Amino acid sequence: MRQRRRSLGARAALLRDQQLCRHLLALPLLQHCRHIAGYWPNDGEIGPLPALRHWHQQGKTVYLPQLLANKQLRFACWHGDARGLRANRFGIPEPVQRRHVSGCQLDAVLMPLVAFDRNGNRLGMGGGYYDRSFAFRHVGWRNRPLLIGLAHDFQQQPALPCESWDIPLDMIVTNRGVLPVGKRRRH
Question: Which residues pair with 85 in a beta bridge?
Fold first, then answer.
């Protein structure tokens, strides 16, 4: 999957990013959110940056993740440009500012992924950062934030393995549209 993502030409990737962002901006659930976290695309990931910039211009607070030493994420404000960003240990731009929020303070989180299935299972890059950062959802926390996986349409798989620590997605948005998720398998 990662190789296929990386093999997209710049034009095809830009078109897919634009299609994705049209679907995100039309999503009624996100229109009412005030605090939305996204990510800086890397390794061929589909990119939410145009939607994040639009929301910032509309007065919403937009965040990008910061990697912590304990393999968790916190989220710092992003103002829509490259100022105030630095490359983290993986070479991905992240905000340098120290003011941040935790995942439970967000309304919605746009999450990158390597593969997904229609049950809301997500295969990430293997570090477990998102699963650790949103583990509070396992202990009866309300369904906040809304966890939305973003992907190219070809990243869908019939089924993915699911571990007890995996945090399910609430929804998936691809360049082709919005995919609600089905019932997740129990352990």
Answer: 95
The pLDDT tens digits for 27-49 are: 999 999 999 999 999 998 999 99
Closest to 170 in 3D by CA, of 27, 20, 13, 58:
27
pLDDT at 22 over 90: yes
> How many Å apart are CA 78 and CA 76, to the nearest integer?
6
Gap between the Cα atoms of 85 and 97, Å rounded = 8
Give Cα 178 to chain centroid, integer Å. Answer: 14
Q: Render pLDDT for 41-80 as a digit per residue (tens, 0 to 9).
A: 999 899 999 999 999 999 999 999 998 888 889 999 999 8
DSSP strands (E only) in the chain = 35-37, 61-67, 73-77, 85-87, 93-95, 108-111, 115-116, 122-123, 146-151, 171-174, 177-180
Angle (nearest 5°) at CA 104 between 63 and 134: 95
Residue 181 in tokens = 């998720």
* Helices 49-57 and 10-26, packing angle to 10 deg: 40
Burial environment of residue 42 by CB neighbours within 10 A (0 to 12, 13 to 18, 19 or more) = middle
pLDDT at 6: 76
What's this model's pTM, rounded to 2 decimal places? 0.90
